[in-house]
Amino acid sequence: MKVTVVGAGNVGATCADVLAYREIANEVVLVDIKEGFAEGKALDIWQKAPINLYDTRTVGVTNDYSKTAGSDVVVITSGLPRKPGMTRDDLISTNAGIVTSVTENIVKHSPDAIIIVVSNPLDVMTYAAHITSKLPRTRVMGMAGILDTARYRAFLAEALNVSPKDIQAVLMGGHGDTMVPLPRYTTVGGIPVTELIDKETLDAIVDRTKNGGGELVKLMGTSAWYAPGSAAAQMVEAIVRDQRRVFPVCVKLEGEYGIDGVYLGVPVILGKNGIERIIELDLNEDEKQLLETSRGHVKEVMDALDNINASKA
Ligand code: LMR
């Protein structure tokens, strides 16, 4: 299996590293526009192979998409990360141009690839990649739900003093403050979380999760990378190993949850064909309302992208 990761910054390099050391692909191609940057990162990962004992070949290239030809999966991490005080949406005009041109290059050389978008604003960059690639919606998806649920699960594990491995959760909506964590679908070793934690603590964890990316931007002056890169690698693994894992993933909705034409995180089954199935939960009225708020926000940013594209046409 061949996997390309576009963008050799912190997120892309972390993703490539996880793909290599966990031997998720036979070959990982890392691409960047900065001369020598991807080559250096790929070489460093390859030189770690005798220490960490893996044989995935890692190759770095400067903007040479011919080397990505025949990729089974492509992860797009290109674009600017945010700085303190910025929202993800503030990145739209710069990152949309980058994601669009990267996607054009990808599909030219790997027309059968499955594309995973990581660039922000996530839901709208997934939209940009989807309309550019013209691939079926099951083959173009965004990584956010695994990251957001991981944060939620980590905070819960800390509060309950249990292993994060035992926390199962699902979260829906856009990758932003309007995301919809679902305590009703959160369990700890099979026990509903509400039986183990008081409402006030749970509400505080839900809030912290919604602002999880921003908390890290404030601490580090730039966006996170270990969890986002690992989350993208986990999606690649589910696809290349046809694991049929159930994850929240950003995809274009076409009637599911009563929503049409908007890109939102929903639970799906991920396997060799990409999104094998979208799972429709029976949401209660409060949850439906939260999802509707999230839909409205993502749609506004999609409209902003449409306006940017129209002004260029
Ligand atoms: C994250 O959630 O860590 C990413 O979307 C990056 C960011 O700026 O928050």
TrEMBL record:
NAD(+) binds at residues 7-12, 32, 95, 118-120. Catalyzes the reversible oxidation of malate to oxaloacetate. The active site is at residue 175. It comes from Pontibacter indicus. GO terms for biological process: lactate metabolic process; tricarboxylic acid cycle. One of its GO terms (molecular function) is L-malate dehydrogenase (NAD+) activity. The gene is mdh. It catalyses: (S)-malate + NAD(+) = oxaloacetate + NADH + H(+). Coiled coil: none annotated. Substrate binds at residues 82, 88, 120, 151. SUPFAM superfamilies: LDH C-terminal domain-like, NAD(P)-binding Rossmann-fold domains. The lineage of its organism: Bacteria, Pseudomonadati, Bacteroidota, Cytophagia, Cytophagales. Belongs to the LDH/MDH superfamily. MDH type 3 family. Residues 1-142 form the Lactate/malate dehydrogenase N-terminal domain. This is Malate dehydrogenase.
